[in-house]
UniProtKB/TrEMBL annotation, chain A:
Transmembrane segment boundaries: 6-25, 46-65, 77-97, 126-147, 159-181, 193-217, 237-256, 276-301, 321-346, 367-387, 393-418, 425-446, 458-476
Family the entry assigns: Belongs to the sodium:solute symporter (SSF) (TC 2.A.21) family.
Signal peptide segment: none
Protein name per UniProt: Sodium/pantothenate symporter
Main location: membrane
Gene3D superfamilies found in the cross-reference section: Sodium/glucose cotransporter
GO MF term set: pantothenate transmembrane transporter activity; sodium ion transmembrane transporter activity
Cell compartments where the protein resides: Membrane
Membrane topology: Multi-pass membrane protein
GO cellular component terms listed in the entry, alphabetical order: plasma membrane
Taxonomic path: Bacteria, Bacillati, Bacillota, Bacilli, Bacillales
Pfam families listed in its UniProt record: SSF
Keyword terms, alphabetized: Cell membrane, Membrane, Transmembrane, Transmembrane helix, Transport
GO biological process: sodium ion export across plasma membrane
TrEMBL record, chain B:
Keywords of this entry: Membrane, Transmembrane, Transmembrane helix
Domain of life the protein comes from: Bacteria
Official protein name in the record: DUF997 family protein
Record-annotated membrane-spanning stretches: 18-37, 57-80
Matching InterPro entries: DUF997
Species of provenance: Bhargavaea beijingensis
Length: 492, 92
């Protein structure tokens, strides 16, 4: 075992752990009436910095730190170009959902995305469909991240996969269960800061090891000139494919429940304004750095065949061991911060949207508290057990999680906010059309065997779900929705 | 329609800002796409290099990122309005 790498990672975990405890102390001062709002939404009082960081950290998962740079290593600059489409998420989500979402969420007293949809569309099928989609897709996504986290710990420490998974699970579970959303958001902020600093340090290390940008680029051109073009190592990365990532990881992110819920958690419009700027800067820096590191790693450390290993290997190659430990806390942070957000979201969906809506509407505060802690902990344990030996179904569902959720939720959220003729028929049709067509097109595309030549499978379902939304909303005529009619507290 | 008369003033602010968001995304996309494929489609021998990076990437992704950051700061500072979120605040 390489203790000089492990020690900084352990220190990082301990710090995160204490932040969780500190946040739960703060939560203990909250009056019982506000328990749910505090546990699942941090009392709607996130400031600009924490808001920006929690959005970036939730969104920047294992793929931005391991998978993405690993692919950039094989594909060259074309993949970095693709990754830069994510900068748009830094401002677009908060600007588009923006103040109207914040105001409406407060009027509806909505704590979850499903609360919002329930109040806007006033329809049981919408609630069931959306809660179901969140629980199924995000649960699988969470499990997949969990596996990624354990693999990272495994590759760094040399511990067995099972032990690594156990360490990872315990550290996440402790702070999420006791601290709730605030602990998640605050630890996300710390993790986000670790990510920014970590990528900067690593980029500098890689540049020094490679002898500067010019030397690295000329090495790349000598090896394969395609690496410095936008078209990928084999020249098969098409404009259509790369551009469609503007929907998958760019503007479509508006439809991701874990991101949308953060758009109702901030304190005031000033926090939002600050978050817009910080979020854009931080997303840009992380994405640019990580993917450049992936590309620049190629001449320094040729012949890595597993993409996910590029970042761990290059860190240990170009940095002193202790510093590599600190830098590698960044992907660890990214995975943990995604997992914790998903865990609290799935838990809130079960407690708030299923338990309180349908099972026990007038549960006492004490029962709600117990259920919230219990469900969060139980979910964590279930994910842990599944991740020990991941079933095929889980891996299968995870494939669809990101695009499937976007196709399902983007229009019910956005149109619900800005189109007064949007109604429940449109929302139901849109969700079904989005999910079904996404799964079908995804399968079809995979069968064609030329993934880089076509549009990403997310594009058409997003269009189809829009069309379905408009047609069904207009066909099943309902009165125009009056956004002013609902005053705060009328629906809860 | 008389709905417009009693529309919450905050919603007008919100709608405008959402449109600004869409506009920025569009500018961002055009800049990114234009430089990447406009300059990047040349043969590699004709590329020039800025700070060591291929010119298309430098303009599309590095300058593009700086530009969009500057635009975000600009619109937030000059066009975004502070708005109260709670109904009680509004009455004050």
């Amino acid at each position: 075992m390489n203790w000089s790498v492990i020690a900084p990672l352990l220190v990082f975990l301990v710090i995160i752990f204490f932040i969780g405890i500190w946040s739960s102390r703060k939560g203990a001062q909250v009056s019982d009436d506000n328990f749910l709002k505090d546990y699942f939404l941090g009392g709607r009082e996130l400031g600009g910095f924490v808001l920006a960081m929690t959005m970036v950290a939730t969104y920047g998962s294992a793929s931005s730190f391991l998978g993405g740079p690993g692919t950039a290593y094989t594909m060259g600059f074309g993949w970095a170009l693709l990754a830069m489409s994510q900068v748009v998420t830094g401002y677009f989500v908060l600007m588009v959902l923006g103040k109207k979402f914040a105001i409406m969420a407060r009027r509806y007293d909505a704590l979850t995305l499903v609360d919002y949809l329930k109040a806007r569309y006033n329809s049981a099928p919408v609630v069931i469909l959306s809660a179901g989609a969140i629980i199924i897709f995000l649960f699988s996504a969470m499990a997949a991240q969990w596996i990624g986290g354990a693999r990272l710990v495994e590759s760094l420490t040399g511990l067995s996969y099972n032990t690594a998974l156990f360490i990872f699970a315990v550290s996440v579970l402790v702070y999420v269960t006791i601290g709730g959303f605030r602990a998640v958001a605050v630890t996300d902020a710390v993790q986000g800061a670790v990510m920014v600093v970590g990528t900067l340090v690593l980029l500098v290390g890689v540049l020094i090891a490679g002898g500067g940008v010019q030397a690295i680029i000329s090495d790349l051109i000598t090896e394969n000139p395609n690496l410095v073009t936008p078209f990928g190592a084999d020249g098969n990365l098409t404009k259509a494919y790369v551009s469609s990532f503007w929907i998958l990881v760019g503007v479509g992110v508006v439809g991701l429940p874990q991101i949308a819920v953060r758009s109702m958690s901030y304190k005031n419009s000033r926090s939002m304004h600050r978050a817009l700027i910080i979020g854009t800067v931080v997303t840009g820096i992380i994405m640019l750095n990580m993917h450049l590191i992936g590309i620049f790693a190629r001449p320094i450390l040729p012949g890595i065949d597993v993409g996910d290993k590029v970042i761990p290997l290059i860190s240990m190659e170009v940095l002193p061991a202790w510093l590599a430990g600190i830098v590698l806390a960044a992907p660890m942070a990214a995975i943990m911060s995604t997992v914790d957000s998903l865990l609290i979201l799935v838990s809130s969906t079960i407690v708030k949207d299923v338990y309180l809506n349908y099972i026990k509407p007038n549960a006492t505060i004490k029962a709600i508290k117990r259920t919230s802690f219990g469900v969060t902990a139980a979910l964590g344990v279930i994910v842990y057990l599944l991740a020990l030996n991941p079933p095929d179904l889980l891996i299968f569902l995870n494939l669809f999680a990101f695009g499937g959720l976007e196709a399902a939720f983007i229009w019910p959220i956005v149109m619900g906010l800005y189109w007064k003729r949007a109604n429940k028929y449109g929302a139901i049709a849109s969700m079904i059309a989005g999910i079904v067509s996404y799964v079908a097109i995804y399968q079809w595309t995979a069968a064609q065997g030329d993934p880089f030549g076509m549009l990403h499978p997310v594009v058409i379902p997003v269009v189809l779900s829009f069309v379905a939304f408009v047609i069904f909303s207009l066909a099943m005529k309902q009165e125009a929705y009056d956004y002013n009619l609902i005053k705060e507290g009328e629906i809860s | 329609m008389n709905e417009n008369e009693n529309t919450d003033w905050r919603f007008k602010v919100a709608n405008r800002e959402a449109l600004i968001g869409c506009g920025l995304a569009l500018i961002n996309f055009i800049w990114w796409f234009g430089f990447a494929y406009g300059m990047g489609s040349k043969p590699v021998e004709e590329y020039s290099y800025i700070f060591g990076l291929p010119d298309w990437f430098f303009y599309s992704c590095v300058v593009g990122f700086l530009l969009i950051t500057a635009l975000v700061i600009f619109v937030v500072t000059f066009f975004f309005k502070d708005v109260p979120f709670d109904e009680e605040e509004e009455l004050r």
